[in-house]
């Protein structure tokens, strides 16, 4: 795949992420902050961006979202075969929420 193709795909991913994140922030900022792992300041900034600002920001060749599967217990909890799916999902949510608290420190 060419470098231009990768940049276009990153831009598309950035745009999709930013539009979704902004929608979540506008609908329910505290929940969006928790789910996306962002501060109130960042949520306020994102919520107030115009569409043209989002498009310009998304065109960056840098990936703007962060995947939070860098912690072994989280990835393990998500991939473990278990009989009780709701318990597995609750355990994963607890692990992710603890990660959010650590990031805020």
Structure overview:
The chain is mainly α. The chain has 6 helices and no strands. The protein has helices spanning 3-27, 29-36, 40-47, 51-58, 72-79, 85-104. The longest helix is centred in the first third of the chain and has 25 residues, at 3-27. It is globular and about 45 Å long. The model is unreliable at 100-105 (pLDDT under 50).
Order of helices and strands: HHHHHH
Low-confidence stretches: 100-105
| Cα shape | globular
- What's the mean pLDDT score? 78
Number of helices, counting only DSSP H or I runs of 4 residues or more: 6
Radius of gyration: 16 Å
The largest pleated sheet is described as: none
Distance between the termini: 40 Å
List keywords for this structure.
single chain; 105 residues; globular
Task: Sum this structure up briefly.
The protein is mainly α and 105 residues long. It is built from 6 helices and no strands. Residues 100-105 have low confidence and may be disordered.
Helix/strand layout:
Layout: H1 3-27, H2 29-36, H3 40-47, H4 51-58, H5 72-79, H6 85-104
Helix pairs in contact: 1-2, 1-3, 1-4, 5-6
């Amino acid at each position: 795949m060419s470098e231009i193709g990768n940049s276009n795909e990153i831009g598309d991913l950035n745009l999709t992420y930013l539009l979704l994140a902004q929608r979540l922030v506008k609908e329910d900022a505290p929940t969006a902050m928790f789910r996306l792992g962002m501060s109130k300041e960042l949520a306020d900034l994102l919520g107030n961006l115009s569409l043209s600002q989002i498009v310009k920001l998304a065109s960056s060749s840098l990936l703007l979202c962060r995947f939070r599967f860098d912690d072994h217990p989280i990835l393990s909890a998500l991939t473990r075969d278990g009989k009780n799916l709701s318990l597995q999902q609750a355990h994963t949510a607890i692990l992710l929420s603890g990660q959010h608290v650590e990031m805020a420190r």
